[in-house]
Amino acid sequence: MSSSGSLARRLGTRDAVVIGLGSMIGAGVFSAFGPAAKAAGSGLLIGLALAAGVAYCNAVASAQLAAQYPTSGGTYVYGRERLGEWWGFIAGWGFVVGKTASCAAMALTFASYAVSASPGTQRIVALLAVVALTAVNYRGITRTARLARVLVVASILALLTVVVAIATSGRTSTDKLSDLPFGTGGIYGIFQAAALLFFAFAGYARIATLGEEVRNPAHTIPRAIPIALGLTVALYAAVGVSALLAAGPSALAASATPIATAADAAGLSWALPIIRGGAVVASLGALLALVAGLGRTSLAMARNGDLPRWLASVHPRYQVPHHAEIAVAAVVAVLVLTTDLRTAIGFSSFGVLTYYAVANASAYTQRDEHRRWPRALNILGGVACVALIAALPPSAVVVGLLVFAVGLVGRWATLARRRSR
To answer: Which domain holds residue 359?
Structure first.
């Protein structure tokens, strides 16, 4: 096989669902519930429902597009095919920068739960996790799916144990919902909570970016994406309700570890090691799948010249985009050493919501023979993505706009140089 050849189709529906679950489960439960509770208070559950609804619209758009275009790259490819090269670049750039921030967030989350040490030591541990999981991805996608399956099962069991323990503790009460009714931002706060919680649902995109590596993609991808999303929504709803009834929104908003806070409020000190272990494996599972998806989107962009051609190389033995994965790991390593968790979540949501706005616009243009869901969902999804972007913290919006401007100017300059030659 040449260094720029095709990737091998080795994944079935079960593997694709597991990779999607591994990308989603953990991010919202262990990272985003605290900031969301601060923004929306007990309206957190409304924000969760909004985030799930937007995620569904985006998921069916992605599934429909992936069935028509079963190749690596996700909405980067769909935008190019349906709307034009610039729209494809906007989607691809949004995915790459947003999910690179997500990788940093997951690595930092892993380290904060894995070791009780100084912030500097935790950053080193996070860096080691990035290096280790990049090495796993480097050895091939079937190894990625195998490890993701183990991590997903462990994290789901941990979360279900905590949910059942809180529900049967006898120390939950609806009265606790009144201590912070709608956070500090009213309706705006609810939308901001939805935008932050959307960070937790974006993992289904990893299934679409693996379109070149699943068997029978026209059948597998449209099944795997809704299944993975539905299972994640059900689990997040159970965790969110349990945490609110046990600790109340005010305590969650003030905590960096909201699930641990909820367990402590319910008198479940014995469950804290389980929560810590669940956070560790969930963060590792998300980081594992994020690195895989980023490498494949970078591969697609490099094939079209939107990123350096060097990134288009596919390993002749392991059949993975090894140059792209190494480059992604290097950038994530820099972010792990220089940024913080809250900033990473906000910036990630900006990039990923932009990505899905392009996905919905692309799906809207598909012809009837390729449609599986009504166009109304594409309109709703696109409008909702823009609304959630506007509701993000202003700092995340400003930084996001600047990074996108850099990307667009860079592409324009590259094209101008090519024309001059």
So the answer is: 17-414
CA distance 189 to 176: 19
With tokens 């070791």, the residue in question is: 115
Q: Are 214 and 221 in contact (CB under 8 A)?
A: yes
User: pLDDT tens for residues 79-123?
Assistant: 999 999 999 999 989 988 898 898 898 898 888 888 877 888 989
Helix (H, G, I), strand (E, B), or coil: what is residue 372?
coil
Count of H-run helices and E-run strands, the chain: 18, 0
CB 236 within 8 A of CB 162: no
State yes or no: pLDDT of 128 exceeds 90. yes
CA distances from 122 to 108, 259, 299, 343 (A): 7, 20, 31, 17
Q: Is residue 207 part of a domain?
A: yes
* C-alpha span between 58 and 61 (Å, rounded): 5
Give the dihedral sign, CA 311/339/205/373. Answer: negative
**203 domain-assigned:** yes
* 3 state DSSP class of 20: helix
The total number of structural domains that make up the chain: 1
C-alpha span between 291 and 357 (Å, rounded): 22
Contact predicate 185/40, CB 8 Å:
yes
Tokens at 326, concatenated: 């190494």
Strand partners, 214: 11
The residue that leads in pLDDT, 220 or 207, is 220
pTM confidence score: 0.81
In b/e form, how buried is each residue of 391-419, taking b as 16+ CB within 10 angstroms? bbbeebbebbeebbeebeeebeeeeeeee
Concatenate the DSSP letters of all residues of 410-421 into one string.
HHHHHHHHHHH-
The CATH number of whichever domain residue 50 belongs to comes to: 1.20.1740.10
Kindly state whether residue 353 falls inside one of the protein's structural domains: yes
Pair of tokens at residue 300? 């697609």
Q: Which residues contact 310 (CB under 8 A, 6 or more apart)?
A: 302, 323
Question: Does the residue 372 lie in any domain?
Answer: yes
Q: Kindly tell me the sign of the dihedral angle through the C-alpha atoms of 122, 123, 127, 130.
A: positive
The string over 16-36, giving b where at least 16 C-beta atoms fall within 10 Å of a residue's C-beta and e elsewhere, is: bbbbbbbbbbbbbbbbbbbbb
Give the whole-angstrom CA distance, residue 74 versus residue 410: 22
Give the max Cα distance, the chain.
74
